Amino acid sequence: MREAQSPAESAAGGDPGGDAERLRRWRLVLGGGEADGTGRTLTGRDAAMDAALGALYGGAGAGGSRRTSGERSAGLGGSAPNVARWLGDIRTYFPASVVQVMQRDAIERLGLASLLLEPEMLEAVEPDVHLVGTLLSLNKAMPDTTRETARAVVRKVVEQLEKRLATRTRATLTGALDRSARINRPRHHDIDWNRTIRANLKNYLPEYRTVVPERLIGYGRASQSVKKEVILCIDQSGSMAASVVHASVFGAVLASMRSIATRLVVFDTAVVDLTDQLDDPVDVLFGTQLGGGTDINRALAYCQSKITRPADTVVVLISDLYEGGIRDEMLKRVAAMKGAGVEFVTLLALSDEGAPAYDREHAAALAALGTPAFACTPDLFPDVMAAALEKRPLPVP
To answer: What residues contact 281, with CB distance under 8 A and at least 6 apart?
Structure first.
């Protein structure tokens, strides 16, 4: 069996034009020192990039740097000037998507969350969903001098999400609402002639060159009235931060549609109804309190009490299902709502973060009730809601 080659040996046998670039990339990845095997010395911009990477990934903790000959330094020292300088450096040397990952790692690895309470830090960061989650978790400890800056950061992320998601969501759900409102005995001016003709093509009479419409398809006259009620029930435990952000944006989009009556409820061990703040998702987000326990049963009891038209209601539970309340009662409530005609949707996450951790036993119990629990990306959510509104099988990934 052939022995594995070092990066330098691999590069030496490849395309001569790509050798230097491959060695450069390996050097940046491995961080220098005798063990990296590249023999490459970095200068100029590459040296600055290496220093920025080393401050985060070089191995020391938040307390400072450790440095031996040929090794990366590590740590930002925990001081605001050092962190601000580092944030500026990574925005100079790396694209926004990489900057967001590095910021997230810095908060987790180096314990920099407390520094986000300083306005100067917030002005230096690259806003993204994960940063918003961190800010919301710090909400109660946030001084007044920071709060307005934090709201500006959160609003920038919310506006980006709305721009990406709102148009498609409205178009998809408007179509679903129209289809769910079709009736088979419409008045003449409410007939959908295109669909009526397609549905009656089997009744085409060649000799008369016409279709006999045995079945008329049309729309209800009250097309601008409220057709459906949607209740978003969102777990605000710390692990659900990205889901809370996306759900708040979708809640505001749904609330902007006249034909959907939208209610937004967040919960941990307590239940908070934020429906009156749905016109501004930033207010919704600052009304949440990430962290704490979970009582799904209590939250569903509240949602159940607000249902007035079960057959026209969709309840969306967004939770990792780690129930701290009464499990059997939770399942009984779901069964009761479904039995009354409610469309019940369980999302383990509403984010782009991939497969989440969740309580598999509870997920299996809900699936046995005919409510499969699954993670959903923001891009898939409009299709999930459209299927629920039309009472079709959900597009489970």
So the answer is: 158, 162, 248, 249, 251, 252
Among the residue ranges 68-77, 157-166, 272-281, 324-333, the one predicted with the least confidence is 68-77
Strands, E, within the chain: which ranges?
182-183, 204-205, 210-211, 218-219, 228-235, 260-267, 271-273, 313-318, 343-350, 373-376
Gap between the Cα atoms of 125 and 157, Å rounded: 12
The larger pLDDT score, comparing residue 346 to residue 216, is at: 346
Q: Which pLDDT value is given to residue 190?
A: 63
The first and second tokens of residue 181, run together, are 């409102």
Contacts of 267 (CB under 8 A, 6+ apart): 233, 234, 235, 236, 294, 295, 296, 298, 299, 302
The torsion region of residue 25 among left (phi > 0), alpha (psi -120 to 50) and beta comes to alpha
| CA distance to 29, 272, 371, per residue, from 295 (Å) | 44, 12, 19
Compute how many other C-beta atoms are within 10 angstroms of the C-beta atom of residue 32: 19
Residue whose structure tokens are 């990792």: 320
Q: Is the pLDDT of residue 231 over 90?
A: yes
183 DSSP β-pair partners = 218
Give the model's pLDDT for residue 33: 62
The number of helix segments (H) and strand segments (E) in the chain equals: 15, 10
CA distance 257 to 277: 15
Within 10 A of 395 (CB to CB), how many other CB atoms are there? Answer: 12
Closest CA relative to residue 348, chosen from 319, 323, 368, 371 = 319
What distance in Å separates the CA atoms of residue 247 and residue 129, rounded to the nearest whole number? Answer: 12
Please say whether the beta carbons of 192 and 182 come within 8 A. yes
Structure tokens at 309: 């038209």
Q: State the pLDDT at residue 281.
A: 92
Q: What is the pTM of this model?
A: 0.69
Rounded to whole angstroms, the Cα distance separating 317 from 396 reads 15
Which structure tokens are listed for 333?
Answer: 């409530």
The rounded mean pLDDT for the chain is 81
